[in-house]
Amino acid sequence: MQYWLIKSEPDKWSWEQQKAKGEEGEPWDGIRNYQARNNMRAMEIGDKAFFYHSNIGKEVVGVVEVCSEIHPDPKTDDPRWECVDFKAVCDIPKPVTLADVKAEPRLADMSLVTSMRLSVQPVKEDEWNLVCEMGGLDKPA
DNA sequence: GCCAACGTTGGC
DNA sequence: GCCAACGTTGGC
């Protein structure tokens, strides 16, 4: 079981749209970065990820779960690009903003801070637990 | 809307 | 294989 963080501009694909898909989930297509794709290849069904709104909001708004194996990106014929599907798990009661993360010394090594532009990134277990706590979840998702 | 950071592409 | 040019991301 590993933890991740995925970014989306709410203009293009928002948390509300993700939740509306429910159990069916949604392919995380459109990733055109090798490191991000490699992270998706390392995912297993049942892994959890934070859903982060970039650009607008700049906050962690929800928790999703990997619900498919890696498969070709349906949006392109280029065989290099693959993706997994995510389904919504729960809201973050108090969204954790980028400013919150930067203000917390224990999160200084989080990829969100150190690899700002990476759109699919790993999250360490202690980081995961702390962000859950900051977000107002009683116990980590 | 600007611009810095950074990844990718392509010429040599 | 280097590196300049270019495109994209994402914070501000």
UniProtKB/TrEMBL annotation:
It holds the Pfam family EVE. Residues 2-134 form the EVE domain. It comes from the Bacteria. PANTHER family: THYMOCYTE NUCLEAR PROTEIN 1. This is EVE domain-containing protein. The lineage of its organism: Bacteria, Pseudomonadati, Pseudomonadota, Alphaproteobacteria, Hyphomicrobiales.
